[in-house]
Structures are given as structure tokens and as C-alpha cells.
Give the backbone structure.
Amino acid sequence: MGLGAVGFPRPLLASPGYAAGCFFVEAMLTAVQDTLQRLAELLPELIAAALTFLLVLTAGHVLATAAGRVLRVGERGNRYSLLVSRVVRGGFGLVGLVLGLQILGLTAVATSLLATGGLVAVILGFAFREIGENLLAGIFLGMSRSFEVGDLIESSGHMGKVRDIDLRQVWIRSADGRDIFIPSAQIFRNVLVNYTRDGLRRGEFVVGIDYGDPVGEARDLLLAHARRVPGVLSEPEPTVRISEFVTQYCEMQVYFWVDTDSGPGLSEVRSRVMAACLAALREAGYTLSSDVSTAVAVSKAEATPRPER
């Protein structure tokens, strides 16, 4: 058996299997060469697309870091800074990817990616509308900083001290010990009352004085003893006003201000002021509303009928 030029037997070189193998190898080599040639032609576009993606991604990282630093100011900023940073980085990453695809001439792919992302966002938005609404409201509440942990707030008929602020809900503890969880969207939509924003709170109570007692002197007495109670601020100063004339006594309303940030709470100071005023009135011999036994008519005068002509 003779040998061919490459050292293989001539029957082997002439076999169909050998010819098919050579054709397959040649086709692979040709495909690799074409691919390398296309990559060489696309190399400037690939470099430009990669640089654009990295540049946009870096800008997103810088902006996300700055936003995180801004949100970290305050007690509850840390719980929002991480989420906002991730959202900003993800958004810039998507923009960089789309720009890179457009530079490579893959505009259809970029458009399809945006359309698919938009469709997915719409579907998820309808499926998790309430959850997304609460999350967005929680982010906006975190940025507005209308209340902090420890503040006394009232919203949607619920009043209590803030124990925790989450993205989805706000946890408050009412005066009677109930734990109330209010959705963030509900607080964001409705009126919010913050009783301890600056620490100043006004207390008040009503005391009844007999009509036979000197009302002016009673007013001065109440005002003097309210000013002496520890915890009552001198500015704004306490005031005492006649609030109403009822059947058996004259109602007098006492107003005073306290600073809950640097002193005792409003309930404690209110109890002290009421006790001091009660003791002063008892000592001065005033007849209080619970001891009045004589009724006085304070209704409007009846109209005099016209004489008949």
C-alpha cells in the first residue's frame, strides 16, 4: 500500500470520511476568520460602547453616593439611603447599557429592552400597586422629615408616639398602650399633626367659679399660681380667660405652655398646674363649680311683643 504526500495511505486519503472532515475543519477556520475580522471592524464601536457604559455607571455611582450622604442626615436616613443608592445605580446602569447597544448599532435590541422593561414595570405596578404606593410614600416621607422617632403625631384619627418608621408603614404607640401600624401612603395622603415638632405644647383646663365670687380676683389668683409651677414657660406666658357663662357658675379657662424637649411631659405639668390652682382657690375660700347650689338664669332675654294697634 503506497503512502500519500502527507504520510497517510492513499486509500485513506481518498475515503469520503476524510474529505468530510477536511471540509468541516476548513469551514470552522473560515468562520473563525470571519468572526475575528468582524470583531476587528467593530473594535472601535466596542471600545466606545464600553467606555460609555463605564462613564454612565461611574456617574450613577457618584450621584448615588451623594444622595446617600444627604439622606443619612438625621436619625432615620440610613434606612432610606441604601435603597435610593441602589435605585440610582440601577437606573444609570440601564441607561448606560441602552446607550452602548445603540453605539453598536443594536438599536432594535435597545428598543426591545426598554419596551420589555416598561411592560414588566406596568404589570408589576398593577399587581403590587398598594405595596409600591406605600414604598414610594415611605421614601417621600423620609425626604420630607415631617416627623421623627419619638414625636407625638396624629393621622387618620390615630394619635400616638412614633416608635419606628419603615418604608411601608409607621409604628406608633397610643397613650393607652396600643401599637398602631399606619401605612405610609395613608399618612402621606392625609393631614398629619405633629405635636412635638419644636417641643412646645399648650395645655389647658377649665374651672368653674360661683357667680357670687369675685371673678377678676379669681383670674389673677389662677394666673399667679400657674406661673409658679415648675415646667410652665414664661414665654409664651400663661393666660386665664372667661370661656363661658353656664347656669350655675362662670367657666374660666387656664392656658399654659410647656417645653417637652427639656422638661416633663404635658400631662405631668398639667396635673401640677391643676393641683396648684385647686389648692389656691380652696385656700382663698372660693366656691368651685362642684359646690355651687344656686342656679342663675343666663338665657337670652325674651323679645317684648308689639302692642296691638
Residues 1-5, 292-309 have pLDDT under 50 and may be disordered. Residues 16-71 form the longest helix (56 residues). Residues 18-127 form one domain.
